[in-house]
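Recall from the previous lesson that a structure prediction takes nothing but the amino acid sequence as input. Here we apply that procedure to AB hydrolase-1 domain-containing protein from Triparma retinervis. The sequence below is the only information supplied.
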Amino acid sequence: MILVGWLGTVGFAGMLYSSTALQRGLVFLHFVVWPVPTSLYTHLDYTFGENAVGKYNIKNVMVESGGKGGKEEEDLGIIQLKGYKLRPPLERGEGAGGDVIIFFHGNAATRALSWRKTHIKLLADAGATVYAFDLRGYGDVEGTPTEEGVTEDARAIYDYVRRTEAGKSIFVYGHSLGTAITSALVNSVCTNPGCIGPGKKPAISGIVLDSPFVNATFAALHHPSTLLIRLTVPYADQIIKNSLETKFPSDEYLGRVDVPLTIIQGRQDQEIDIEKAGGLALVETVRRKREERRGEQAREVKIKVYERTGHENVHENSRFLKDIDTALTEGNSNSRRSQILNAAIEYDF
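The prediction returns the following tokens.
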């Protein structure tokens, strides 16, 4: 039985090495669709509840993206990306909504997942206008996700928001796999280290990464799902490193730009090892790369470690709203001046 199990593990590792389709499926988990039916996602009173729709002035939004899924994919034409727009509650005052957050969720399920809806409502509670979308292959959006394809989708959303919310400060926020998409978007948008766009205004005012990973290789080498392969298959680490089609080099992308970055992660995260592959490893890498490029002119990088928090409930921590508010405030402030980079690590006991 042990031999059979080992042979099965080796066989699966071989399939993983040779099949990019299998790799993509495991990375994006877009085939996990929940809640169902997806036809109800645009029925806001049902999806959010009438009270929430009124409180946050929630609207359905559609953005067109080109359909190129990658070098091996056919051109799908135009893909209709579907999402939600939320406004801050009225009690936030007339000045609320001047900041805009584009939210990218993680793998599996959809934008209508219960705790994701809670997540984006909390971001609106922080005083920002929030856009949250399903990218290609997720929920009621056609297509199959690839690294190139979801980056194209993210850029289409950014361009739409930039036009729609002209003059406002734009922040990008990603959770889990969404942090990799966020980082790829930053790399696409920022054509100079300061990410300064037309009119000498920052194209992106700040980045918030919730439960991130350094890059796809680091994530795979330390993820629980690959543990059996890594323990039993000879040269498993090299196989993983050499076979991964999806790279998502967030550390490289974030190290190239000088945009304020806040990382938030739970110490109890069971999906991404915070020290070996997650936030603590990422902040050190980005800090070093930024210092090498910008020296004392590099902007601040921060990480918030929530001690009693896991992978999917960072937004439930009592400090979350305060930390988001701080990220928005510092992002706007840092848009107007350079600061000496200081990777300040804050712990929540």
